[in-house]
Task: inverse folding
């Protein structure tokens, strides 16, 4: 809406202000007035206009503002003169507006003339950060958010890309033609140093998007009409915040309060990260294990050393797992890296888990807030999935294949990014107050504690697997229990008819066979197992059962076969012996009986071993004839014999080797002697 | 001061070697290599003893020997002995990863406890490196945190 500003003042020709200009100017005026002495709020432009006489802007702030426009002093003098302030002695709203318009004209390169202000001009640009109006100007709330977003985005991207740029010149250069329309603002936005944008973001509280937009463009000259009334209060609030966070123009802004702008996570980004976290681990208060995170981050296509370094930075407690804040930090670092930022030497303070915990106390809550907020946003704005990444760079979101949304969002980036970024910054400003959440710090502590336990999960799994792979080591004990049960029956069974029972027992339980069986079998040949076998006794020739079990060793099988043949005959013999033996070893007895497989395993090993050696022959006899003591002795003797045999074998081998060496040495000696002989033919003479 | 720190994998290949006088790096490599034999000997001597923290530390591996500095690389035959006493210390972890540290004791005779604490720090940093899922066991260690820790050890003791 156009309004004639200069109506009642008579200070000059009627001033036609566009809506945005109205807003800007009124804001600026209010600021100047307010700065002068807590002046009245910026009423509607009409009000200001209609009551020109009552409101005057103090010269001080006005002068500052004019100086901020960075026009030469002479021009400013001209402007002041022209606008009539000098004439009337004060800066009334009319004068102020005219002056602003003249400034805009001057900045656009037009001569400072009253006529200049008649054409549509872009809003005047004021460099100084304290001019909150600029900030507000920056919000082309009227421009559809899309336009604003685009420029913002571009700005963000450019700033990110050119961290080193000093954008002073850019802000000054009149990028816009006098007929600047909102679309022309993009160039401006490009110049906005990232830090500024971020600072604004940071400082913005949760506001309607116009407010964030305003906050975002501290240095950007207002493209066009600023947002309407809704932004009035919040912008002011924000303006104050922004003022407090005012930063130098240096893009890097290292000296500002936000030296690590790129390392701050915006609200949108935060939401995005939280969603990604949830996709990996449903419980946001839990953590992601290292392998899961590794797979996820590998998709970002960064090099492994870089990912390794990022992990090092972000896993603060070095437990091999990522809690939510750690995950957000890592994700953010990856995003930054993909956007071309060099990785920092140390974890930036804004990415520290404690900070993140405090800054985003309840991700869920904010999520919901954000969601509701986004719903209220125009349709073209895409909530979150926009990618925080977008803030960093337009193109990079696509790189991360994980969220397909990102791809789509990329398409819409231009429209939504700025808006979302603004929103997020608005949200972020709130979380700034760390005091908010002592509880979250506790949570973080507990979270940290948990990861420790979790990090061991993988190891435990491996251990479990190892245990699972250990079938061969079967505890013979269980067999004993079985046997105990069976022993009762067996005893009864055996006594009446041994052979019958034996035969009956033979078929039944191959299943049980103890793993020791194969190992034992293998040992047979080595003659080792006998003593090692937990079951003491004597070899029971239950070869038949033994054969039923898998035989890893052919030899053992071979041994077993002959034994098997003997088994039946021996079974009868053994059974009585077994009966005797049981007294001393009830558990073993049943084992022998019932668990043929086991018994056979154990016993087979014994018998085979005996078979293997000369002892085998003897084993049968002793069993038959000897009592349990004799069987024990037998066993001891057999053990000793076996050991002696082994020693013999070793010594024999050693002997042969030494003999061999001796031979070689002899040969060498002979060769050397021959050489010697050849070498002294003279002596022969 | 620690002039050389080395992390040797179970299979006796180096995961990380860093020495302060970088010009004689090869010599340090050789020294560490020879120290491995001593380490192995000590490990086997321990037999089946349970490896606890104390036994992880192997103590002085080698009697101090003169550290020969070659004046020029072109003439290796000419040696001028530089009376630097070098002490090698060893430390082995449960997973048979060995840490060897060559310490120049000319300035200060480091106490045993200091050596132990240095090894403990090394071990902690090593476990932190292990915790990184992007680190494959058996790779060379490129972790910056580990590097900085080793640097601090080498410099501070200097």
Result:
């Amino acid at each position: 809406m156009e309004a004639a500003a200069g109506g009642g003042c008579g200070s000059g020709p009627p001033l036609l202000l566009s809506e945005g200009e109205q807003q800007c100017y009124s804001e600026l005026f209010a600021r100047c007035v307010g700065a002068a002495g807590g002046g009245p709020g910026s009423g509607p432009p009409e009000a200001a206009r209609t009551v020109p006489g009552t409101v005057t802007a103090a010269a001080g702030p006005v002068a500052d503002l004019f100086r901020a426009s960075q026009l030469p002093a002479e021009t400013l003098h001209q402007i002041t003169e022209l606008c009539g302030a000098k004439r009337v002695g004060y800066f009334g709203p009319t004068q102020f507006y005219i002056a602003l318009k003249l400034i805009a004209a001057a900045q656009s390169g037009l001569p400072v003339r009253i006529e200049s202000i008649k054409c549509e001009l872009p809003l005047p640009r004021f460099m100084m950060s304290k001019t909150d109006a600029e900030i507000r100007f920056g919000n082309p709330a009227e421009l559809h958010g899309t336009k604003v977003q685009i420029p913002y985005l571009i700005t963000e991207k450019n700033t990110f890309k050119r961290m080193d740029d000093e954008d002073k010149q850019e802000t000054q250069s009149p990028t816009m033609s006098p007929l600047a329309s909102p679309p022309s603002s993009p160039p401006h936005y490009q110049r906005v140093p990232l830090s500024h944008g971020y600072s604004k973001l940071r400082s913005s509280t949760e506001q309607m998007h116009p407010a964030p937009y305003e906050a975002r463009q501290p240095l950007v000259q207002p493209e066009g009409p600023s947002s309407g009334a809704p932004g009035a209060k919040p912008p002011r609030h924000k303006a104050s915040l922004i003022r407090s966070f005012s930063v130098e123009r240096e893009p890097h802004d290292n000296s500002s309060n936000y030296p690590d702008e790129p390392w701050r996570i915006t609200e949108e980004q935060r939401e995005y990260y939280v969603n990604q976290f949830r996709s990996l681990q449903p419980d946001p208060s839990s953590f992601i294990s290292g392998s899961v995170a590794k797979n996820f981050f590998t998709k970002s296509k960064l090099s492994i050393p870089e990912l390794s370094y990022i992990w090092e930075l972000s896993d603060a407690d070095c437990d091999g797992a990522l809690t939510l804040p750690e995950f957000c930090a890592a994700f953010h670092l990856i995003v930054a890296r993909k956007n071309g930022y060099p990785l920092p030497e140390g974890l930036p303070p804004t990415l520290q888990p404690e900070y993140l915990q405090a800054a985003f106390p309840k991700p869920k809550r904010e999520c919901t807030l954000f969601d509701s907020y986004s719903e209220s946003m125009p349709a073209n704005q895409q909530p979150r999935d926009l990618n925080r990444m977008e803030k960093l760079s337009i193109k990079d979101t696509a790189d991360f294949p994980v969220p397909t949304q990102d791809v789509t969002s990329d398409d819409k980036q231009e429209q939504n990014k700025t808006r979302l970024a603004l929103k997020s910054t608005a949200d972020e400003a709130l979380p700034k107050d760390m005091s908010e959440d002592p509880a979250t710090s506790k949570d973080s502590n507990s979270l940290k504690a948990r990861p420790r336990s979790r990090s061991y999960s993988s190891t435990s799994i491996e251990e479990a697997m190892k245990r699972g792979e250990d079938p061969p080591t079967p505890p013979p004990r269980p067999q004993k229990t079985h046997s105990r049960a069976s022993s009762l029956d067996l005893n009864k069974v055996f006594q009446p008819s041994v052979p019958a029972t034996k035969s009956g027992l033979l078929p039944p339980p191959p299943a049980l066979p103890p793993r020791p069986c194969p190992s034992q079998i293998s040992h047979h040949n080595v003659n080792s197992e006998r003593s090692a076998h937990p079951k003491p006794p004597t070899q029971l020739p239950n070869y038949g059962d033994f054969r039923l079990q898998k035989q890893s060793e052919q030899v053992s099988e071979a041994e077993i076969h002959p034994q098997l043949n003997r088994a039946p005959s021996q079974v009868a013999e053994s059974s009585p012996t077994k009966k005797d033996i049981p007294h001393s070893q009830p558990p073993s007895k049943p084992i022998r009986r019932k668990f043929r497989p086991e018994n056979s395993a154990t016993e087979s090993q014994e018998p085979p071993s005996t078979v293997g050696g000369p002892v085998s022959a003897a084993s049968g006899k002793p069993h038959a004839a000897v009592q349990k003591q004799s069987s024990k002795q037998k066993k001891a003797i057999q053990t000793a014999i076996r050991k002696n045999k082994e020693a013999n074998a070793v010594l024999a081998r050693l002997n042969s080797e030494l003999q061999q060496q001796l031979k070689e040495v002899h040969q060498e000696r002979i060769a050397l002697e021959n050489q010697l002989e050849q070498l002294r033919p003279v002596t022969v003479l | 001061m620690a002039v050389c720190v080395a992390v040797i994998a179970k299979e006796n290949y180096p995961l990380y070697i860093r020495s302060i006088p970088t010009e004689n790096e090869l010599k340090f490599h050789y020294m560490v290599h020879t120290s491995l034999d001593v380490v192995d000997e000590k490990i086997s001597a321990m037999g089946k003893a349970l490896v606890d923290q104390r036994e992880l530390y192997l103590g002085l591996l080698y009697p101090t020997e003169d550290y020969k500095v070659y004046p020029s690389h072109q003439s290796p035959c000419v040696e001028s002995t530089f009376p630097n006493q070098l002490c090698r210390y060893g430390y082995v972890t449960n997973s048979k990863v060995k840490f060897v540290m060559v310490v120049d004791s000319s300035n200060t005779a480091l106490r045993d406890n200091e050596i132990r604490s240095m090894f403990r720090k090394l071990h902690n940093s090593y476990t932190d490196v292990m915790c990184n899922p992007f680190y494959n066991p058996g790779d060379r260690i490129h972790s910056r945190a580990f590097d900085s820790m080793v640097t601090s050890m080498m410099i501070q003791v200097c």
Observations:
- The longest helix of chain B spans residues 25-46.
- Helices of chain B lie at 25-46, 53-56, 112-131, 144-157.
- Chain B is about 40% helix and 25% strand.
- Confidence is low (pLDDT under 50) at residues 50-55, 67-82 of chain B.
